[in-house]
Design goal:
The protein contains 1 helix and 5 strands, in the order E-E-E-E-E-H. The protein has about 80 residues and is an alpha+beta fold.
Length: about 80
């Protein structure tokens, strides 16, 4: 499982493991977790980067409709993942 490090605007870092990635409507999304095994906190992140950006710029999907839609896509891609 790929491990990635995110750096917030304030310089604080957090590491996550990428469970899956997908593209919907031309927008890239990744499903990440804070634990490599077992039950961990999962987040869906949306790539907000400019097309020519050197570094990726992700934000947490917080819109309820978008979150419901994209979580459904990830549930279909990963049979053992269920969002509650």
């Amino acid at each position: 499982m790929e491990k990635i490090t995110f750096t917030a605007d304030d310089g604080e870092t957090a590491e996550f493991f990428v469970l899956e990635q997908t593209t919907v409507g031309g927008i890239n999304y990744i499903l990440v977790t804070d634990s490599e095994e077992g039950d961990g906190e999962a987040l869906i992140l949306k790539d907000m980067s400019a097309p020519d950006a050197e570094d990726a710029d992700y934000e947490i999907v917080s819109d309820d409709e978008e979150l419901k839609s994209i979580s459904g896509v990830f549930e279909n891609l990963l049979e053992d993942i269920k969002f509650s």
